Amino acid sequence: MPIQQISLQECSSEFPKVFDRVLKNHEVISVRNESEQEIVILDAKEYSGLIETLYLLSNPANADRLREGISQHQQGQVREIDVTTYLD
Question: Rounded to two decimals, what is the model's pTM?
Answer without folding.
Answer: 0.68
